[in-house]
Amino acid sequence: MTAQHDGRPVTVMVVDDHPMWRDAVARDLSEAGFDVVATAGDGPQAVRRAKAAGPDVLVLDLNLPGLPGVEVCKEALADRPELRVLVLSASGEHADVLEAVKSGATGYLLKSASTEELLDAVRRTAVGDPVFTPGLAGLVLGEYRRLAGEPAPTAADQPAAPQLTERETEVLRLVAKGLSYKQIAERLVISHRTVQNHVQNTLGKLQLHNRVELVRYAIERGLDDA
User: Fold this and answer.
1) For domain 11-141, which CATH number applies: 3.40.50.300, 2.40.128.130, 3.40.50.2300, 2.40.37.10?
2) CA of 25: how far to CAs of 19, 115, 128, 183, 202, in Å?
3) Domain limits of the chain?
4) pTM above 0.70, yes or no
5) pLDDT in tens, the chain (226 residues)
């Protein structure tokens, strides 16, 4: 299955300070139909090349010389907010996972993942699905819940929440539970494209940028428990 984005191959950049690992990941992605537009071996080089190459997906190690991966993530996203970042790390430490997500990473995969799991994760990251190594998704959702329990500093200034349709709310609830677009389509007996349309409409109404922010919004309102 060729990885397509808007009718063209998904472009990917691979950042890791170990040349053999970096080359192997880049080769696996290329062979699977991704267009690997750049690689980098340290933090500052990663920021420069990400700006120049403009990939759809950044596959990023956290432990980099020169500039930590989380800083690379922040800087790359500040330059291109539409970029998707998949962290590929040897560390399953909770603090590392949460720091990566807070810096804007869409997903977090451990380096113990198989090649197939990596390819699937990059495909899903490209369309905005949050992808986490099993066990880490619950941790991230738990953190969002904790943050949601803290009062928002500007709650009094915020306008009333926009009105979502019943179907949009239903889709949002399933997104918050961690279902993929495909699973949501099957559950609601609608097409994958219709699910995407509902999500895009909801993002627009709520003035959010991606699915990770959408999940956070839904959890803050308790929709994942509904």
Assistant:
1) 3.40.50.2300
2) 10, 8, 21, 28, 35
3) 11-141, 166-221
4) no
5) 456 556 789 999 999 999 999 999 999 999 999 999 999 999 999 999 999 999 999 999 999 999 999 999 999 999 888 999 999 998 888 888 888 888 889 889 999 999 999 999 999 999 988 888 877 777 776 766 666 665 544 444 444 456 778 888 888 888 877 778 888 999 888 888 888 888 888 887 777 777 777 877 787 777 766 5
